[in-house]
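Hey team,

Sharing the Copia protein run so nobody has to redo it. Sequence (142 residues) first:
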Amino acid sequence: LTFGYCTFVGGNLVTWRSKKQNVIARSSAEAEYRVMVQGIYELLWLQKLMEELKLLETSVLSLFCDNKAAISIVHNPVQNDQTKYIEIDRHFIKEKVVNGSLSISYVGSKDQLADVFTKGLSCKGFHTLVCKLGTCNIQEPT
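Structure output:
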């Protein structure tokens, strides 16, 4: 499984990552959840950097995920078979959501920007996501 995420500051793409997961997940929800944790660590690092540079006041971080089961793990206080292997990460994310410093929202698969880094897409789907990322082809004649 390959995971990917991208982060934006002020509407501008600033970091992105695509990597093959080095652990085996027992479900797609667990795999997505592990990716959410990596994305949150990236968001927290960027937030700290921006604060140290005095460029950004502390604000609510927004994370978008296309897996409803992974999102429901955050909001479900009961441990079950799906969460017993990710319990520490579950508490970490839950704390950020409860204290209001993190917002997790569902985004449909066709609008998931990180898919451009992890999936084979049609030409139209690829170009749509690349445009939404705010990138351009510098080799294209103007």
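The two ends are 38 Å apart (CA to CA).

Ping me if you want the raw files.
A.
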